[in-house]
Write a structure and sequence with these properties.
Strand 6 and strand 7 form a beta hairpin. It is globular, with a radius of gyration of 21 Å. It has 11 helices and 14 strands. The two termini are 22 Å apart. The structure holds pyridoxal-5'-phosphate (PLP). Pyridoxal-5'-phosphate (PLP) binds next to helix 3 and helix 4.
Length: 365
C-alpha cells in the first residue's frame, strides 16, 4: 500500500470528463478575462459565507493584501496575528509596510484571545485571526476586543471555507474574510485562485477596481491598482466543484471520525472540535512526542505526511528585522516540534485509513 498525502491525480480522474467539456464551453465563449463565471462564482460564495459581497481574486495572498489595504493598514501600523501560520499571512502585512505583532496560540493552534489585549498599542490597526486547519478561531472574544479598541478584523480563512463558529461561517465575522482556492485547499481551482468576502459595499467595489488595474470602467481610474483577477476558466471550474463542497467536507469529517475512534489517544493528541466549532478538516493535525521519528517510520511504510509548519514565522530569517527570538511564543514553538499532518483527503479508502491508524498506534505501543 502506498498512500500519498494529497491526491490531485485521483481528483482529476473522477472529474476529467465533465471538466474537459466545461473548459471547452468556457473558452469557446471567448470571454477569458472577467466574464459570467466570475459573477456566478461570487454569487455562490456569498451564499456559502453568508455575506453581502464577494470578490473573486487570483489568490488568497492577494485577498489578504487588498483586504488589509482597503481597511487602511499602512506603513508603521501594527497587525496582530499568530506566528504558526502559512508565511503569506505575515508577508502581506510586511509588504504593506506594517509590523506583524504575534500572539501565542491555544492547543487548537488558533490565536489565544486572552493574550491579545496586552499586545495592543496606539499603532495597532487590525487583528488577523487565522482559522488554521479548518477550525474557526474564538471569534466572540476577538470581535469584542476589536470593538473595544476600535480595531479592524481581517480573517485569514484560507484554510477554512465552509467552517463555522456557533453556526456562523468563517469569513463572516470580520470586516473582511480572505480565502484561498489553491489546489491544496478544500475548494480548489486548477491553479492559483482566491477571494474575499465582506458586508461593506464600498470595500467590495474598491476591491473589484483594484483587482483590475484600479479601473472603475474602461477609461476611469480613481486609484492605481493591481492585476489580481481570477480567471474566468478558474471560476468555471470552481462553480463546478463548489457543488461538491458539502460532500467533500462530510467525507473529511467521516475520515476524522475514523481517526478519533482508531488512533490511540493515550499517545496522540487529536484535533477534536470544541462545541462551538464545525471543523472542515482542511488538515488533520495530530500532536505527538517523537514526531520526526514517527514521520520517518510512516515514510518507510509508504505513508506520506506533512508538517504545517516546522518553523514558526517569527523564527524565519525573513522575520529577523522584527527582532523576535526563540522562546517568545512557547506554545507555538512547542507545537512546531510535535505537529504532524496526516492524510485526510476525500479519496482515502477505509482500508487506507485503517492502515495509517494501525501503523501509528504500533509505533507508540
Ligand atoms: C494557503 C494559505 C494562504 C495563501 O493562499 P494562496 O491562495 O496560496 O495565496 C494564506 N494563509 C493561509 C493560512 C493559507 O493556508
Amino acid at each position: 500500500m502506498k498512500i500519498p498525502y494529497v491526491n490531485l491525480k485521483k481528483q482529476w480522474s473522477t472529474e476529467k470528463k465533465n471538466i474537459l467539456k466545461l473548459i471547452d464551453k468556457t473558452l469557446s465563449n471567448g470571454e477569458w478575462v472577467g466574464g459570467p463565471e466570475i459573477r456566478k462564482f461570487e454569487t455562490n460564495i456569498k451564499r456559502i459565507c453568508k455575506t453581502k459581497y464577494a470578490v473573486a481574486l487570483n489568490s488568497g495572498t492577494d485577498a489578504l493584501t487588498l483586504g488589509m489595504y482597503l481597511l487602511g493598514v499602512k506603513k508603521d501600523d501594527e497587525v496582530i496575528t499568530i506566528p504558526n501560520s502559512f508565511i503569506a499571512s505575515v508577508a502581506t502585512i510586511v509588504h504593506l509596510g506594517a509590523k506583524p505583532i504575534f500572539v501565542d496560540v491555544l492547543p487548537d493552534q488558533n490565536i489565544d484571545p486572552k493574550k491579545i489585549e496586552k499586545k495592543i498599542t496606539n499603532k495597532t490597526k487590525a487583528i488577523m485571526p487565522v482559522h488554521l486547519t479548518g477550525r474557526v478561531s474564538n471569534m466572540d472574544e476577538i470581535v469584542k476586543i476589536a470593538k473595544k479598541y476600535n480595531l479592524k478584523i481581517i480573517e485569514d480563512a484560507a484554510q477554512s471555507v465552509g467552517a463555522k463558529y456557533k453556526g456562523k461561517p468563517a469569513g463572516s465575522f470580520g470586516d473582511v474574510g480572505c480565502f484561498s482556492a489553491h489546489p491544496l485547499k478544500n475548494l480548489n481551482a486548477i491553479g492559483d485562485s482566491g477571494f474575499l468576502v465582506t458586508n461593506n459595499k464600498k470595500l467590495s467595489e474598491r476591491a473589484k477596481d483594484l483587482r483590475n488595474h484600479g479601473m472603475t470602467n474602461r477609461n476611469k481610474v480613481n486609484h492605481f491598482g493591481h492585476v489580481s483577477r481570477m480567471d474566468n476558466i478558474q471560476a468555471a471550474i470552481l462553480n463546478y466543484r463548489i457543488k461538491n463542497l458539502d460532500k467533500i467536507i462530510s467525507i473529511r469529517r467521516k475520515n476524522a471520525e475514523f481517526y478519533f475512534k482508531n488512533l490511540n489517544s493515550k499517545f496522540i493528541k487529536l484535533p477534536y472540535e470544541n462545541k462551538n466549532q464545525f471543523n472542515t478538516f482542511h488538515t488533520f493535525v495530530i500532536q505527538v512526542k517523537n514526531r520526526d521519528k514517527l514521520q520517518l517510520y510512516l515514510k518507510k511504510n509508504n505513508i506520506k505526511t506533512a508538517i504545517h509548519y516546522p518553523i514558526p514565522i517569527h523564527l524565519q530569517p525573513a522575520c529577523k528585522k522584527f527582532k523576535y527570538s526563540k522562546g517568545d511564543f512557547k506554545i507555538a514553538e512547542n507545537q512546531s516540534k510535535e505537529i504532524l499532518t496526516l492524510p485526510i483527503n476525500e479519496h482515502l479508502s477505509k482500508k487506507e485509513l485503517k492502515y495509517i491508524s494501525n501503523k501509528i498506534n504500533k509505533f507508540y505501543e
